[in-house]
Specification:
The chain is mainly β and 119 residues long. Helices cover 12% and strands 35% of the residues. The protein is built from one helix and six strands, in the order E-E-E-E-E-E-H. The termini are far apart.
Length: 119
């Protein structure tokens, strides 16, 4: 299966607007980007001969699209939402991340409580 990688850069910490960073990239390996981690992304705008640094600022959105190289089949589009590293401290936790954390992690992190046997 073909994967299409699209980087979206948030314009500000409200996460209400974003713009595409660079062009779509075709990749053969399943893309994996984690919320809150730092990545260097090739957006064709090298700064001092180095790639700019961004933080994944939301959960990656995945959807089926027609494959750009073979219209008869589908590809998976991975939209990765980024923030500039220097702006990351102004961002609150993403609502989507909060929902996942509050619905999944409380049940996962519960420790099994064993009663102490009577002696």
């Amino acid at each position: 299966m073909q994967y299409v990688l699209r980087f979206q850069l948030y314009d500000n910490p409200s996460r209400q607007s974003f713009s595409q960073l660079g062009t779509d990239k075709l990749v053969t390996k399943y893309p994996l980007f984690r919320y809150g981690l730092v990545y260097r992304v090739d957006d064709d705008n090298l700064i001092d001969n180095q790639l700019p640094v961004y933080v994944v600022a939301n959960i990656t959105r995945i959807k089926h699209i027609p494959d750009p190289t073979n219209p008869g089949i589908n590809a998976l589009l991975f939209e990765v939402f980024l923030a500039r590293l220097e702006e990351w401290g102004q961002f609150d936790e993403a609502d989507e991340v909060k929902q996942v954390r509050e619905s999944y992690w409380p049940t996962y992190n519960r420790k099994l409580v064993r009663k102490r046997p009577l002696v």
